[in-house]
Write a structure and sequence with these properties.
3 strands, 126 residues, 5 helices
Length: 126
């Protein structure tokens, strides 16, 4: 019996369209060897998850809710295997300043940076 892979795409971020394209391409490849179901990260996500009962989820989500640890925390709470980094590594990777501080603390070379917030962008004279 073929293993079941749920491909999670779409989602709520500004990168939704790219995520859908990614999911479509992944499905095209995986369906040769696996039973595949493509699912949007929307209000029906948990219902689809329960119906399909995947062996693993291929996370094709981009941006917020997909790469920031959010969906990973849901999947871990349900004890479902998934592709992608875990909750904490995803959250830190999305926080560029936190990532830089971790790199510096661990003596990993990283370029200098400037932290900008919405209220100080005008200091660039753009």
């Amino acid at each position: 019996m073929k293993k079941k892979v749920l491909i999670l795409g779409g989602g709520l971020s500004k990168e939704r369209e790219i995520s859908l394209k990614t999911a479509k391409q992944v499905k095209k490849i995986l369906k040769k060897n696996y039973k595949v179901f493509q699912c949007d990260f929307d209000k029906n996500f948990l219902l689809n998850l329960k119906k399909f009962k995947p062996n693993i989820i291929f996370n094709a989500l981009h941006g917020r809710f997909g790469e920031d640890g959010f969906v990973q925390s849901i999947l871990e709470s349900k004890k479902i295997k998934y592709t992608h980094s875990g909750v904490l590594s995803s959250a830190f990777a999305m926080d560029k300043v936190a990532s830089k501080e971790i790199f510096k603390k661990n003596k990993i070379l990283t370029p200098k940076y400037i932290k900008f917030e919405n209220n100080n962008l005008n200091k660039l004279n753009i």
